[in-house]
Amino acid sequence: MTEQAALDAWVPKFEAWKEEAVPQIMSGKAKEAFSRYPWFSEPGDPFKKLRKPARQARFGLVTTGGYSIEGEQEPFVPMPSFDDKTPELRTIPFDVDRSKLRIDHPGYDHRFAEQDINVNLPLDRLTELVQSGEIGTMSTDTQVLMGLVPNVVPLIRETIPTIVQRFVSDGVEAALLVPS
Amino acid sequence: MCHQTVSLVARGLEEARIATCLVSVLPPLSSAARPPRQVIRRLNIGATLGRPNDVETQLDTLRRMIALIEEADGPGAVDRDPKPESPE
Known about the structure:
The complex is a heterodimer. By secondary structure, chain A is α/β, with parallel strands linked by helices. Chain A folds into two domains: 1-46, no CATH class; 54-178, no CATH class. Chain A contains five helices and seven strands; from the N terminus they run ααββββααββαβ. By secondary structure, chain B is of the alpha/beta class. Chain B has one domain (2-80). The longest helix of chain B is centred in the C-terminal third of the chain and has 17 residues, at 55-71. Chain B starts with a helix and ends in an 8-residue tail after the last strand. A three-stranded parallel beta sheet of chain B has the order 1-2-3, with helices on both faces. Chain B has three helices and three strands. Chains A and B meet through strand 1, helix 3, helix 4, helix 5 and strand 7 of A and helix 1, strand 1, helix 2 and helix 3 of B. Strand 7 of chain A pairs parallel with strand 1 (19-24) of chain B, so a sheet runs across the interface.
């Protein structure tokens, strides 16, 4: 089965789920709605062996924490993306003014991240690992999503290729991914 | 939902020849999308690398992710926290 065939088989299940789930979510029954969500699985098992030590490699960071920069970037829409709109990305530089970071993701408790962003946006920890020589370099820009993406079609077709293109053009060889 | 999202991003990056590892605190959800490598930790949603200001745990999670990128020989590699010992 190809990726397209997997998506073609998944979309009718998603549409049937969405019809029942959206009203439930709007009435505050998100947990019940997502308990019946048709999780997506695609064929194949892609795997790239990193053929050098981490201390010589360039790393990238992806987080789904829904961070944006107050006063510089539009906030994420704080709702699950059910339609065909492309899930948005925000780019957070490693030297960002931490006080300007805003969390737009409605799906997790922000209390931990408000105390210390490194719980899911490890800018300080990864800077320390570069300084100690445990990893080579970091891509200067972190790729941030708001991870509530029930409709995987535009994610796979649009957003993921954008992340790939940004990392490839920046020479990233390995990536760390942090859900929220 | 975030766990499915990062798993699919990881797969897309590997197809572009970028090695990846994610951290998971909800392994049934991340594993359903078959990420190439994952470190499964007994931590909390919203603090998936470690609790606030717990530098040691945050670094340990990141080091385990980096180690799995260096050491895994094939897809589906997992480094999982051990189950807590049950009281006698």
